[in-house]
Structure formats: C-alpha cells, structure tokens
Hints:
By secondary structure, this protein is α/β, with parallel strands linked by helices.
Amino acid sequence: MTQARSKSLTERPEWKALVDHQGAMANTHMRDLFQEDPERFKRYFVEASGLALDYSKNLVVDETIERLMALARSCGLPERIEAMFRGEKVNVSENRPALHTALRNMNDEPVMVDGKDIMPEVRDTLARMEEFVWRIRSTQWRGFTNKPFTDVVSIGIGGSFLGPKLVSASLKPYWHGRLNCHYVANIDGSHITEVLRHINPETTLFLIQSKSFKTQETLENTKVAREWFLHNGGSEERISKHFVGVTANKPEAVKFGIAEENIFPMWDWVGGRYSLWSAIGLPTALTIGMDNFRALLSGAQAMDKHFRSAPLEQNLPVIMALLGVWYGNFWGADAHAILPYDHYLRGLPAHLQQVDMESNGKCVTQHGDPVAYQTGPIIWGGAGANGQHAYHQLLHQGTKLSPADFIIPLHTHNPVGNHHAILFANCLSQTQALMQGKTEAEARAELADQGLSAEAVETLARHKVIPGNKPSNTLFFERATPRTVGALIALYEHKTYAQGVIWDVDSFDQWGVELGKQLGKDILDRLLDGERKSETTDSSTEGLIRIFRNRHMNGL
Ligand code: F6P
C-alpha cells in the first residue's frame, strides 16, 4: 500500500492554485481563446500510438495545464504509473497488483508477482489460444456430427462480456467469414432464448467466461445452454467438444462440467474489466484470428509504453485524465460523454462505463478515509451522428456540464457515397458548435435575415441563443484496425488509473457491487419459497415481494 498522503487532496497548494485559477477563468469564453491565439490547435494537440488528440476546444490555457501537471506530480502520478507496471499491489483493498499490461507485454521483460515471473504463463496461454483458434478456424476441431463450427456463443457478464463484445464489434471487418459470434450476458431469459433460437447445436461452440466462476447470471445461462445442448442431439460425452471455459477458478469450472483440458486460465492480478486482453478475449480471437488479436495487444502495448515513458505534458492518458479532473473537481461537471463517430465502435460507451465507473466510482480513499471531493464521473454516450438527433440538445443548451470525447477514424471500412465526409463534418460541426455557440446578436441577425417580424425576432432570439463554451476532445486515428482499437481501449484504461491516482482511490476493486448480490440471494429465496428467513426491513421490498409471489407465482 502506498503511504497515506500527508496532506489531503483539497488541502494541497496545487489544488488551491487550481481553485483560484478556475475563479480567474470563470468568465473566459473559448471563442475568445481561439481568436487570441491562431496557434491554439497546434498548441493543444498530441499524438501517440496511432491516436491523435485535439484538446484545444477545452477551457484551458497554458497556465491551466501547468497547474494540473503540478497537481499530478504532487500526487506522485509518475511513481504510481511505474508502480502499476512493476506489479506493485496497487489494488490495495484486495492486496493484489493490477497487471493487465503484462497481458500485452510482447517483450522478453519479466513481470514479477510475489517473486515469480508471470510472463511464461502469459505466453503459454497465448500459445494455447493460438492453437485452439487455429483448430477451430481450420475445422480440425469440429462439432459432434463432424460439422465445422459456424457459431460461437460467449456466456459471461461485466468484464467477461463488455470488453470482448466491444472488440468483436469494433473489428467486424476482420471477422472470419464462417464464424459468427454471439454474446449472452443478462439473466433476463430473453437474452439466451433469442440467441439459442438462431443456432444449431451441432455447429455451436460455447465459451463460458467467468473469472470467479461464481457469477449467478453466467452460471444460470450456462445451465440453460447445457440443457438445450443435451436436449437437441448433444450428450454428456459430447459436452467436451462444445463447451470451453475461461476462469481463474478451475475447480468450480470442472465441478460445473467443463472438461479440465478445455479450461483456459485467468489470474487474480487481472481485473474483470481489464481482462479482454487475456483468454477472456477468446471469442474475439476466434472471429478475428490470432494475428489480429496479437495486433490488438501490440496496439495496447504501444499505449502502455507511451503512458509509462512520455513526459506528463505529452502523455495522452494523463492529459485526458487531468482534463477530467479539471471539469469534475473545479467546474462542477458530473458526467463525461463518449461519442464514437464510427458504427463499429458504438459499444465503446458501454465498455468504458464499466472501466471508469466500476474503477473510480468510490467514496473512500485507498486508505479508507472518506473523500472530500468528487471522484469518477457518470460515463454515458452513444454513436454519432445518431445522438445529434437525440441527446446532444442537452449538451448544447442544457444546464448540466458534460465534457465529451468525439472519437472518429479518418477512413471508414465502408466507403459509401459521401457518407464518411458527411459523418466527419457532423463530428466537427458538433465540437465547433459546442465551443462557439451562438450569441444573441447572431441569433437576432439570423432571424431578421429570414424576414421575421421584429416581434417574432424578439420572442425567438432568446430560445436560439447557444451559450457555447462547452468542452470537448476530438480523438482521431487513421482507421479502426486491431492496433488502433487496442491503443484506444488502453488509453481509456490508463486515463482511468491516472484519475484514480489523483483522487487517491483504489481503481481496481468493486466492493459496491457486492451488496446487491448479497441482498439478491435473500430476496430470491423469498420469491421462490415465500418463507421469511431474514428480517427485510423496508415495506417497499416486502410489498413488491408479495406482489410478485401473488401474481407471478400464481401465473396471474
Ligand atoms: O459484479 C461485478 C463483477 O465482479 C465485475 O467486476 C466482473 O467483471 C463481473 O462481475 C463478472 O465477473 P466474473 O468474470 O467473475 O463472472
């Protein structure tokens, strides 16, 4: 564990300097900043690992960046970055390192955990994945009627679902023609039912993905898949041809009926939400192939190297992290939008919700003291340009401040007509509109030009004013390739960690989600057998249990 900080965050001179600076900046408009400095775009632009960030449309001047960097240094950010890579136990409440970076460490460099180099195991697992992927894709490994597999169903939830699903979808142009990939996560029976409806047991491979192998949703869905398989031509002996597991809890997986030789390992030093780079990435590797999976890892590794070695002022994840701190702690922003202008990347907000909100949604420091400041933001978003015709209204004229990341490739995988230029224009016009807004004088002039009466101009002008001054980042890259997607996801992982360091929270535990799981067990018992085993204290939960039992259990 790192030493408790001698001064709490808000007591630091660097923090106070930022409070003062925000006061001085409070009436600054970005329009003016752009007018005053024609070099602003160049000044606030950084590139790394195939990604480029224009952060000029932010409420920052050089002094802001200097003061934010001073805060980061005073929080020991460079040392804490190094500590994570070196395998120190940065997950303090679980007394573990967080070594997702070791999963994409393609060098020979050892990474030590409790005196043991973990790299041989990482490399062995990659080699096993390689062989497995090759056997499935080359049709060496076939289903029980000797037909090649056509469908892969991944059963898992949280980090054992969102990351692989995002990568699979992001890299659809690289999919193997014959293999289709489906994901089942939810305990809502409709999810698995809909997937099973469209597949053939003879040609379907199930991947059971669970670090703990204790997650209720995953185990229940696996039981359904197993029963479905057994009732549709499968048999106990045939299970081993069709069910493969990825877990850190091999004994549980074996107990559950997965053949020992079909189990790929996971490790407690990889957090669920950081696990897509491990064998949890198998559904992705099966569809995009192992070469592309390795390219994904190497893109992430390039970002790792950058995060570890670039000076803070040139460090992409650090800059993005500090901009988030600037708005969340000094400007009152509660939310942050992720807006991918790329159809294949539309799952990015959902994955980053878990990465960021499960990591930094914390109210005590890593030493257990209550925090006296805001921590992780609400992450939300969706695909551009769709969002422009829905929730962007709030970004432009709402009362809430939500900085936004606009993410776009320069080239599309599907050049159709002028679509990509139009998409790009939409992306740029949004960030421009957010930044410059529309003044009342401009609104009036526009309305007058349309020939409206003075009275109509008077009424409408105030509605048409757009305050502007809303911060955004524009993050772009050549094309959504395995390398760039790897770098992009790693960028956000590191941004999240860097913010966690500033806020002094443990970004790698998730105790909050446990309470719901605990209470869920009691409630399920009550729903199923009605007997009141524990004191349920609130009348709302009691009333709802009664209604469910009366109506659902009685088939009403
Ligand atoms: O409940 C939260 C969580 O523990 C996540 O952190 C994790 O990614 C998910 O559940 C799934 O866990 P597992 O891979 O152990 O099934």
